[in-house]
Amino acid sequence: MTVSIRKIEAGDQARWRELWDGYTRFYEREPSEAITRHTWARIMDPDSPVHAIVAERSDSKVIGIANYKDLFVDPAARAVGVGKQLIDWLLAESKRQGWSRLYWNTKENNYRARGLYDKYTPHSGFLRYVINMPPA
């Protein structure tokens, strides 16, 4: 499968939403329309610090996204190097932009992704604990 990585474009919104929904469900959350709209608006705003890239097959189908903080590949397109291509693009971009670091989080039991991530660097050893406060 030939895959190319490029910056996201406005015309990618429908497919981005599908993959974004898959990403949120993977992390056991139901997609929120308000958060989805807000995230997309930030990605499309050139003055926002949130950017995104897509992995696209040669038939122009987007099969992966990286929002510079979230990475998700269509389950049907996994295990062929798409995640690696997304990370490699981000590493090159971090060098071009002079970023001081590149990092990401994943679930402790996301072993498939961790197998890829461990090829780049060992994990930091930190686990994230979150307390969601009930609405007032």
Ends: how far apart?
Answer: 50 Å
Per DSSP E runs of 2 or more residues, the count of β-strands stands at: 4
Percentage beta strand: 5-15%
What order do the strands of the largest sheet run in, or round the barrel if closed? 1-2-3-4
Largest sheet: 4 strands, antiparallel
Order of helices and strands: EHHEEEHH
Detail the poorly predicted runs.
none
Shape: globular
Overall pLDDT confidence = 94
User: How many helix segments?
Assistant: 4
What structural class do you assign from the helix and strand content?
alpha+beta
Question: What is the share of helical residues?
Answer: 25-40%
Task: Please state the CA-atom Rg, rounded to the nearest Å.
Answer: 15 Å
Please give a quick description of this structure.
36% of the residues lie in helices and 13% in strands.
Which tags fit this structure?
13% strand; 4-stranded antiparallel β-sheet; 136 residues
Structure description:
Strands 1-2-3-4 form a 4-stranded antiparallel β-sheet, with helices on both faces. It has 136 residues and is an alpha+beta fold. The model has no long low-confidence stretch (mean pLDDT 94). Helices cover 36% and strands 13% of the residues. The N and C termini lie far apart (50 Å). The chain is globular and about 50 Å long.
